[in-house]
Amino acid sequence: MRNAMIIDPQDNVAVAIEPIAAGETVTYACDGKDVSLTALQDITIYHKLAVRDISKDEPIVKYGQHIGIAAEDIKAGAHVHVHNVASHRENLD
Fold first, then answer.
1. What pLDDT digit, counting tens, does each position of 66-92 carry?
2. Separation of CA 49 from chain center
3. What's the half-sphere exposure (Cβ side, CA atoms, 13 Å) at 69?
4. Average pLDDT for residues 61-69, to the nearest whole number?
5. Torsion over CA of 75, 71, 14 and 48, rounded to 10 degrees?
6. Element (DSSP H or E) covering residue 4
7. How wide is the angle at C-alpha 24 spanned by C-alphas 47 and 45, nearest 5°?
8. How far apart are CA 47 and CA 13, in angstroms?
9. 8, 55, 58, 85 - which has most CB atoms within 10 Å?
10. pLDDT value at residue 81
11. In the Cβ-directed half-sphere of 90, how many Cα atoms lie within 13 Å?
12. Cα atoms in the Cβ-side hemisphere of radius 13 Å centred on 60
């Protein structure tokens, strides 16, 4: 059963659509296929988790949009939130 979702195949985070406990399997659809990984931490409903390893200073991509920069290395399955994401303002000129 799917308990997370992504919108764009370029996303490197998924959004939990129900509470997920550490150690549980996270399943989401990507390009018509179900993908699974293990949650490393508890994930609150509607919070993000990494769907692959994300390196420090790499953009966080949700819904196909850059929403911040990884403030530290983030492992696949880890909670992605204000504790490990820095804000990023693009130059709009």
1. 999 999 999 999 999 988 999 876 665
2. 3
3. 9
4. 93
5. 110
6. strand 4-5
7. 20
8. 10
9. 85
10. 92
11. 7
12. 28
Residues constituting the chain? 93
Q: Is the pLDDT of residue 93 over 60?
A: no
Structure confidence by residue, pLDDT tens digits, 26-48: 999 998 899 999 999 999 999 99
CA distance 43 to 15: 9
CA 71, CA 66: separation in Å to the nearest integer? 14
Q: Which residues are registered as beta bridge partners of 65?
A: 62
Residue-wise DSSP of 12-60 = SEEEESS-B-TTPEEEEEETTEEEEEE-SS-B-TT-EEESS-B-TTPEE
> What pTM was computed for the model?
0.90
| Interatomic CA distance for residues 31 and 6, integer angstroms | 10
**Tokens 């799917």 -> residue:** 2
Q: Say yes or no to pLDDT of 8 above 60.
A: yes
Structure tokens at 28: 């989401």
